[in-house]
Amino acid sequence: MEEIAIGPVHPAMLEPHRLRLFIEDEIIRDAELTIGSNYRGIELIMEGLPPEKITNLAEKVCGICSHIHVWTCVRVAEKGCSIDVPIKGEYIRAIVEEFERLHSHLLLFAHMYEVLGFETMAYRAFMIREHVLKALEYITGGRVQYSCPVIGGVRPRCNIKKTFWLEEKLDFLEEGIKKLLNRTIKDPMILARTKEVGYLDKETAIKYHATGPTARASGLSCDLRKRDYMPIYNNFEFEEIVLDDGDILARLLVRFYECFESIKILRQALEDIKEMEDRVYNPNYTLREFKPLDIYHEAPRGVVLYGYGLDENWRVRQVLIRTPSLTNLATMEAILPGHHVSDAEPIIVSCDPCFTCTDRAVFKKEVEHVRDRNLRN
């Protein structure tokens, strides 16, 4: 067998990873995916800090889905300290999250088209995504890093008072995504590279703990928005998208259909907040000591987990962060054997990986330095 190494830098991927393919007659017999090029140690840096300060670090875990990390992070403190959040604040959190889902899925479409060699389609996806970023900038003031949720609600600058402009954006986005979908399912070249390629059966998805659209494309129902983990979503009518084909095309289609469901949620949310009072933040909360507890949320890529507790000095302890890409990447690595070598990168990309948010380890000397610094502060 021969070995082909892809990475740690690939022209179509924004983050470094190393993929070793062991091939025979251009057919993959074994694969080894190596991550860990982005050592940051965010969990250990959080140790010993006040809960209000770790949200700045949580936002840096992932540059694409930064909002859901901050939202999950603050909900740990809100649950542990029994802090009430104004209903409009919760609605704005959900609105920003659904726009972020659109932004994340459109970015995945662009990357997939790029690795398939369809640069024109990639640019079309980016053009549609630009309008999502403008909507996020209108709400929060930021295009990718929003700094929207805080303990007790959202920042006052994120208070949505005029919704008509956002509603017009939704009409444009729906039409643009429909055109992108129609072109995708009718293009014979795209279908040749994605249909019946990278098949992930339901049993393998369960075995490797696949999550998010990657799992739902293989017949697994796992959307936490439908399971009371995110109670605000009980106020909206939307469908959980589950397909059974399990190939690259199915993983794309799940995300396409989820975009339309996100637009449906956004229209309902923007209509509901018109009648709500302007209060979006509860400043009258009190921190108290609580044992470590976990909060699960549905991120665009799948389940994200934040867990920590507060000590008697109201400092964060025993931080745990789990992101969805770790198990999804393991799943993609498992299904690579048997495919042509040219299908390797599209299969990896089809789970919408985020390598940076998966890599959070640090070296021992950095651990000691961070721990000593936080204890001194």
UniProtKB/TrEMBL annotation:
Binding site for Ni(2+): C65, C354
KW Cytoplasm (keyword) present: no
Residues where Mg(2+) binds: E43, C62, I321
Keyword annotations of the record: Iron, Magnesium, Metal-binding, Nickel, Oxidoreductase
Required cofactor(s): Ni(2+); Fe cation
Domain called NADH-quinone oxidoreductase subunit D: residue spans: 116-285, 297-360
Keyword Iron: yes
Molecular function GO terms recorded: ferredoxin hydrogenase activity; NAD binding; nickel cation binding; oxidoreductase activity, acting on NAD(P)H; quinone binding
Positions that bind Fe cation: C65, C357
Highest taxon of source: Archaea
Pfam families membership: Complex1_49kDa, NiFeSe_Hases
Name of the protein: NADH-quinone oxidoreductase subunit D domain-containing protein
Species of the source: Methanocaldococcus infernus (strain DSM 11812 / JCM 15783 / ME)
